[in-house]
Specification:
By secondary structure, this protein is mostly helical. The protein has a single domain, classed as Orthogonal Bundle (434 Repressor (Amino-terminal Domain)), CATH 1.10.260.40. The protein has 5 helices and 2 strands, in the order H-H-H-H-H-E-E. It has a two-stranded antiparallel sheet with strand order 1-2. Helix 1 crosses helix 5. The N and C termini lie far apart (35 Å).
Length: 86
């Protein structure tokens, strides 16, 4: 679990900065409390499903890409519109 600890600290830090308890975060994303506990303890190495990832990002005030990077994914976003990078 090389990145589980990093993602755990990242999620916990963001939650605390926003002033949420674990229960409040769980309620805000519509998941049971144990899900937040597992994420914050690094008890899971799997990235949450896209809907949960998006909900977490929205509530924690970051992007889904930020969360994926915390899980250790090397993500570069390159977008083109009409053949030109933006």
């Amino acid at each position: 679990m090389p990145y589980a600890n990093h993602s755990a600290h990242f999620i916990a830090a963001l939650r605390k900065q926003r002033g949420y308890s674990r229960q409040e975060l769980a309620d805000a994303i519509g998941k049971p409390l144990y899900i937040i506990g597992n994420l914050e303890r690094g008890a899971t190495v799997h990235v949450p499903d896209p809907e949960t990832l998006s909900d977490l990002a929205a509530v924690l005030g970051c992007s889904s890409l930020d969360l994926l990077r915390a899980w250790g994914y090397d993500i570069d976003v390159y977008i083109e519109v009409d053949g030109a990078p933006i």
